[in-house]
Specification:
Citrate Synthase, domain 1, binds acetyl coenzyme *A, globular, about 60% helix, mainly alpha, binds oxaloacetate ion
């Protein structure tokens, strides 16, 4: 009997030097550096260069990248025109997917898969994508485009283009931390999708577009949005004490688990004793709860986490603290996973380049269990 590895669980399919997820030591390294150290000390721009190049940038390399990144942030009019054709009630992940496709079709190096062209395309996509998220958030609120500012860094500018005002330094920092933590996570479903597409020798934008499709689902990136739906279903009452909110959240979780529901934001295919990124993201959420003075959010967070731990000992994943963090910053719930795209463009494109450099067509086998051979007539 052939052993079937459903969901490829536990299967090691290739090498990667981009990141190392170690569930035993509960650690995550990007190119050898613990993600917690990067989140504490490095800009998202530096982390992107680390993921692509394998080393942190020199000051000169960082300055050159920063300069080009800041000049490539404008919302491309062709992308804006394509977004404007999409209904306001389509999911923002559809907008992100379409935008990457339009950017690819218009990229002069679209069909050039040399290492230099791949890196240049990755950098352009990195620079261009925040304007897509910001514009989509604004158009859903009936607001116009806010032009990027070259005097702001990536995180500051992302928030500026979205909300049309400069964010407080604490908010910018929490956003930067989320981008660093979301950047890369080895052979997760969307990255693997990008590698499968690349393995056919297809182009970088096709691989990223496909990866966005994989990220959208609630078992993967879509969980950050789903967490907020849970909070909303429980009900966010801004005048409620932390304790009362926690009690209501606990009761909600007990009921959901009694009904055998899967609660998004908990559990992980690789980490079985907690996600290495959660403590850092939870600390950022705590700072936002304090900044916006919203203790009831902490009550909801703690109540759900405790009840899940008591009932099933399943721990939160990164999407759990990220969702409420983006909510407090003022993003609409459906925009959370597109923010994840902006971060994961770095990891995806690093993997696309790695796959291309040592390619083998990804094509597993299946065990046939359909009807036996039969014949017409
Ligand atoms: C950035 C990211 O993409 S992180 C992941 C984001 N995804 C989510 O938050 C979605 C919710 N979580 C899940 O669906 C799962 O934990 C996954 C898909 C992430 C990992 O799943 P797997 O490793 O395949 O574990 P699997 O789904 O088989 O779960 C094992 C057991 O734990 C239970 N379980 C796992 N996660 C949850 C959950 N979130 N809520 C309730 N029960 C859960 C399952 O029901 C199953 O129970 P059973 O053995 O009694 O049937
Ligand atoms: O690794 C996974 O399966 C999912 C995940 O946490 C990520 O992509 O960040």
């Amino acid at each position: 009997m052939t052993e079937i590895k459903k969901g490829l669980a536990g299967v090691v399919v290739d090498y990667t030097a981009v990141s190392k997820v170690n569930p035993e030591s509960n650690s995550l390294l990007y190119r050898g550096y613990p993600v917690q150290e990067l989140a504490a000390h490095k800009s998202f721009e530096e982390v992107a260069l680390l993921l692509w190049n394998g080393e942190l940038p020199t000051p000169q390399e960082l300055a050159a990248f920063t300069e080009s990144e800041r000049t490539e942030r404008d919302l491309d009019p062709r992308v804006k025109a394509a977004i404007d054709l999409l209904p306001l009630n389509c999911h923002p992940m559809d907008v992100g997917r379409t935008a990457v496709s339009v950017l690819g079709a218009n990229d002069e190096q679209a069909e050039d898969s040399s290492p230099a062209a791949e890196l240049a395309k990755a950098k352009r996509l990195f620079a261009a994508f925040p304007a897509v998220v910001a514009y989509d958030q604004r158009r859903r609120r009936g607001l116009d485009v806010v032009d990027p500012r070259e005097d702001l860094d990536y995180a500051e500018n992302f928030l500026w283009m979205t909300f049309g005002e400069e964010a407080a330094p604490e908010v910018v920092d929490a956003f930067r931390v989320s981008m660093v933590l979301y950047a890369e996570h080895s052979f997760n479903a969307s990255t693997f999708t990008a590698r499968v597409v690349t393995s056919t020798l297809s182009d970088l934008h096709s691989a990223v577009t496909a990866a966005i499709g994989a990220l959208k689902g609630p078992l993967h990136g879509g969980a950050n949005e789903a967490v907020m739906h849970t909070f909303n279903e429980i009900g966010i009452r801004t005048d409620e004490s932390r304790e009362d909110a926690a009690a209501r959240a606990k009761a909600w979780m007990e009921d959901a688990l009694a009904q055998k529901k899967k609660v998004m934001g908990f559990g992980h295919r690789v980490y079985k004793h907690g996600d290495s990124r959660v403590p850092t993201m939870k600390a950022a959420l705590d700072r936002m709860i304090e900044h916006y003075d919203r203790p009831e959010m902490l009550g909801l967070y703690d109540g759900l986490e405790q009840a899940m731990d008591e009932a099933k000992a399943i721990k939160p994943n990164l999407d759990y603290p990220a969702g409420p963090t983006y909510h407090l910053m003022g993003f609409d719930t459906e925009m959370f996973t597109p923010i994840f795209i902006a971060a994961r463009i770095t990891g995806w494109t690093a993997h696309i380049m790695e796959q291309r450099a040592a390619n083998a067509l990804i094509r597993p086998l299946s065990e046939y269990n359909g009807v036996e051979e039969r014949h017409l007539g």
